[in-house]
Structures are given as C-alpha cells and as structure tokens.
Specification:
The chain is α/β, with parallel strands linked by helices and 274 residues long. It has helices at 21-27, 43-54, 62-74, 82-91, 125-135, 138-156, 172-176, 190-203, 210-226, 248-264, and strands at 32-36, 57-60, 94-97, 110-113, 116-117, 165-169, 182-187, 239-242. It has two domains: 29-56 and 167-259, Rossmann fold; 58-162, P-loop containing nucleotide triphosphate hydrolases (Rossmann fold, 3-Layer(aba) Sandwich). It has a five-stranded parallel sheet with strand order 2-6-1-7-8, with helices on both faces. The protein has a three-stranded antiparallel sheet with strand order 3-4-5, with helices on one face. Helix 1 packs across helix 10 (248-264), helix 4 runs parallel beside helix 6 and helix 8 (190-203) packs across helix 9. The protein binds 2'-deoxycytidine-5'-monophosphate.
Length: 274
C-alpha cells in the first residue's frame, strides 16, 4: 500500500491561512470525504472527529452491513442462505443516526432497523464473526450500496442539513463515491489493530482474549480483501496513512491537513493538488 504515499504524512508545507476547516465545506465539490481501511484501523474514531471539525455528517457504512447481519441472526435466518439474506437486505429499513446525549455505542452512530434500536447488538462478537460473510453477498452489496450512494450524493451535493459527508467503509473511494475529492485509506498493522479492538471491547466490559481478537481480525481481513465484489483496497488516488504508531489527534490533524490541501490549493498549483 505504501506506493500511494508519495507525500509526507505531515502534509508538507502548511496550508494557506485562508484555508480553515470552516472554508472546506464550500470549497470541496462534491463535499464528500471517503475513508476506507481494514477493521480496527481507526476509521470510525477518525471519521467522526473529522466530521465534527468540518460540520459534516458522519456516515458509518459498515453499520448497515452489521444491521443486516444482526437482524438475520435475531430472526433465525441462516447466514449461509444467500437468497434469504439478500431479501432481508432489500426489505430492511436501516437508519444510521447521529448520537444524542450518551446514546451511542462508543463508535459514534445510533443504529435503528425497522424501528428497533440495535446500536449495541451490532457490535457483538457474533456479528463480528458473520458480517464479513454477509457483506460478500452480491444482493446485499447491491441493496446497501445504492442506499449509501444516495446519502452520499445528497449530502455531498449540499442538499441536506449538513455541509457535506464523511463516509467510512471498505469501498467508498473505489465503488460507492469514486468521485470523492478526498480519499483516505487508513491502515495499521494487524497486531496494533487487534490491540485497539481488544481495548475497545474491554472498555465496553467485554473481556475477549487478545489472541482471539487477533485471530478474528486476520480472518476478517482475509474475507474483506479476498472477496470478488468490491474487495477492500485503497483507491488509486487515495492517500494511505499508516496509523500504527500515531495517536488519534495526530491522525485527525494529518487528515484535516490533507483535506485543506485539496480544498484550498488549486489543482495544478504549487502542490499539484492531489
Ligand atoms: O467497519 P466495520 O468493521 O463495522 O464493517 C463491518 C463489515 O462490513 C466489514 O467486515 C466489511 C463490511 N463493509 C463493506 O463490505 N463495505 C463497506 N463499505 C463497509 C463495511
């Protein structure tokens, strides 16, 4: 992945003074920031913080695949039954809402499926264990991709109450919003990602041995990257950030810096745009 990182991650020269996060909403067209990367790379933490800084909507697309997976488990639909899971994905009404006062699950969205709040359920280990298989089904991807693209186009086109949208997932830069002017691919070593996930689970009172978390991540990486449809990979024009040795604030600042460069330096200018 390092072949995409032609520019230093500190963003090089500081952005022009006029280029503040407050200007970015107006300057980016469409106003879409795509953040992709493997499980545990920090997409949700970073994406949420960046969305807050820019007053953009934060949209965690993985929560939709998780919602379908949880509802299948809850309704006793066999995960192997591709047809039934596809029908569920088409029929299910999933809302990914901004958190209101302490309501979220620590991953920054409230999730409602067919009127039932399932924010906590979609983060359970049984969902972790099955969601990669569910998200590899063509019918599931078709149903959810279309909804995601619609949200992206509406918010990215300034036709909603927010100035833009930060979309977080696996295929946002490659498939869902290929015209996004800012694409970031967050990466980190699998050991570091497992450590983060292990701590995140512990913070929610779930003591899962590190070795188990690591094995589950390796398995999910294999399915997410190896599937035929929209496999996890960095878009050609994505900036790759390896966050293994970076603190959250450092990553957020690096991402905001990159966004400012794209939004405020004219293409073909001193930096050559992206
Ligand atoms: O980001 P996450 O771990 O919550 O995502 C859950 C699963 O959903 C992940 O294993 C792959 C899938 N996914 C996807 O295929 N495409 C997306 N845009 C987002 C998630």
């Amino acid at each position: 992945m390092s072949n995409h990182s032609a520019t230093p991650m500190d963003g090089g020269a500081p952005a022009p003074a006029r280029c503040t996060p407050a200007d970015v909403g107006q300057a980016l067209t469409p106003s879409v920031i795509a953040i992709d990367g493997p499980a545990g790379s920090g997409k949700s933490t970073i994406g949420f913080a960046v969305a807050q800084a820019l007053d953009y909507l934060y949209f965690d697309t993985g929560a939709m695949y998780r919602a379908v997976t949880w509802m299948a488990l809850a309704r006793g639909i066999a995960i192997e039954d591709e047809q039934a899971i596809g029908a569920l994905a088409r029929a299910l009404h999933v809302d990914i809402l901004p958190p209101t006062g302490g309501q979220a699950d620590g991953r920054n969205s409230v999730v409602v499926a067919d009127g039932e709040e399932i924010t906590e359920q979609i983060r359970r280990p049984e969902v972790d264990g099955q969601v990669s298989a569910v998200s590899a089904y063509a019918a599931v991807r078709a149903a959810l991709s279309e909804q995601q693209r619609r949200v992206g186009l509406r918010y990215g086109g300034g036709r909603a109450e927010k100035r833009g949208v930060v979309m977080v997932g696996r295929d946002i830069g490659t498939v869902i919003m290929p015209d996004a002017p800012v694409k970031i691919y967050l990466d980190a070593s699998v050991e570091q990602r497992a450590l983060r996930r292990h701590r995140e689970l512990a913070a929610r009172g779930k003591q899962v041995p590190y070795a188990e978390v690591l094995a589950a991540l390796i398995r999910r990486d294999r399915i997410d990257s190896g599937r035929t449809l929209s496999p996890l990979r960095a878009a050609e024009d994505a900036r790759v950030l390896d966050t293994s040795a970076m603190a959250v604030d450092e990553v957020v600042n690096a991402v905001l810096r990159l966004i400012e460069q794209v939004a405020c330096v004219p293409k073909g200018g001193a930096d050559g745009g992206w």
